[in-house]
Amino acid sequence: MRNGAQPVLEVTNLKTIFRTRGGEVHAVNSVSFDLKPGELLGVVGESGSGKSVTMMSLIGLLPSPPAEVREGSVMFDGLDLLKCTPAQLRAVRGPGVGFIFQDPMTSLNPVFTVGYQLREPLMKHMGMTKAQAQIRAQELLELVGIPDAGRRLKDFPHQFSGGMRQRVMIAIALACDPKVLIADEPTTALDVTIQAQILELVKDLRQKLGMAIVWITHDLGVIAGIADRIMVMYGGQIVEHGTVKEVFAKPRHPYTRALLQTVPSVRGERAEKLNVIEGQPPILRAAPTACPFRDRCSLRFAACDAGNPARYDVGPGHDAACFWDFDTDAPRREVTEKADV
Questions:
Q1: Is residue 296 part of a domain?
Q2: Residue 232 φ/ψ, nearest 5 degrees
Q3: Is 190 part of a structural domain of the chain?
Q4: DSSP H helical segments within the chain, as ranges?
Q5: pLDDT > 50? residue 341
Q6: Source organism's superkingdom (predicted)?
Q7: How far apart are CA 45 and CA 230, in angstroms?
Q8: pLDDT band at 160 (very low <50, low <70, confident <90, very high)
Q9: CATH number for the domain that contains residue 233
Q10: Would 27 be classed as within a structural domain?
Q11: Domain span at residue 102?
């Protein structure tokens, strides 16, 4: 789904580093993407690939120090969020951008009731009285499928199950009707039944509210069922991007192909063992000057060590950052021509 509307979020050349005792870690490297109203963008990759750090960089959620957003722009509603004051960012969080964190047990405050934590953003950002916020908080719990919502507002987070806590987190993120919702692996710790319920809930809310969603996950099966576009990250950068249909049918980066080969077939078509991607994502002590995936790639050749490939178009709305041409099963022609010069 790529409508003709202007992007609600536009990220350009984002770079984020962490200062550590061992030196700088370049966690996000020149990330650029946009998001249209009503669109769902799936962001996938292993742990350590830069997914969560990228999204938390957008709205100033990383602790500084050690984090530092060194370069780039994040345009939202005419504002460059990277240039906003802390007060401006607080005004954007909630009514502008909602965020669902990975672990609801550590994200919810254990000493306040769920009702208090739902009322707080409504009173601060929406100007509601306590009584109005109480009514709206009950409506939000009902919206996310929590039974006996009026009574549960008085309960504390530990009195909810994992799935119900995640629903509370979604309710808090939706409280101020955000234009953009960022969901950071919200179903990772849940069993498959609850996960399916949360996914159906997000689909329904997206349809009802028309918000744009960024869904961060390592689960390609989830992305296949809910996303319009997919953004594959590795080494703090985007290595492939396109529509879900295009990327799943014609992956054009070795890392994307490797991820897809690790997904089990629900039809039981593959009797052999699942593929494993050997090795670990890199810890980048400097901005990458070579392909970050080269040490784990079976297609590695000289160009991979000599430079970091830029994203290039491989199809309609589909781009990849690789020196290999999967159509010819050989190095890209422009790469070999450059080597011959």
A1: no
A2: -95, 125
A3: yes
A4: 51-58, 86-92, 104-107, 114-125, 130-143, 149-152, 162-174, 192-209, 220-226, 244-249, 254-261, 302-306, 333-340
A5: no
A6: Bacteria
A7: 11
A8: very high
A9: 3.40.50.300
A10: yes
A11: 9-265
Sort 278 into a burial class: Cβ within 10 Å, 0-12 / 13-18 / 19+: exposed
Beta bridge partners of 44: 217, 232
CB atoms within 10 A of CB 196: 14
102-125 pLDDT tens trace? 777 788 999 999 999 999 999 999
Contact 75, 115 (CB under 8 A): no
* Neighbour-count burial for 223-249, b at 16+ CB within 10 Å, e otherwise: bbebbbbbbbbbbbbbbbbbbbebbbe
- Residue 186: the pLDDT is 82
Which pLDDT band holds residue 1 (cuts at 50, 70, 90)? very low
Structure tokens at 243: 């529509």
* Rounded Cα distance, 34 and 37, in Å: 10
From edge to edge, which strands make up the β-sheet containing 67-76? 23-35, 9-20, 67-76, 79-80
Q: Which residue has the tokens 């951008």?
A: 97
Q: Which residue has the higher pLDDT, 12 or 334?
A: 12
Count up the domains in the chain and report the number.
Answer: 1
Distance of CA 286 to CAs 27, 28, 292, Å?
A: 9, 11, 11
What is the torsion angle, in degrees rounded to the nearest 10, for the CA atoms of residue 163, residue 164, residue 170 and residue 173? -130
8 A C-beta contact, residue 169 and residue 101: yes
Residue 4 lies in a domain: no
DSSP state of 309: P
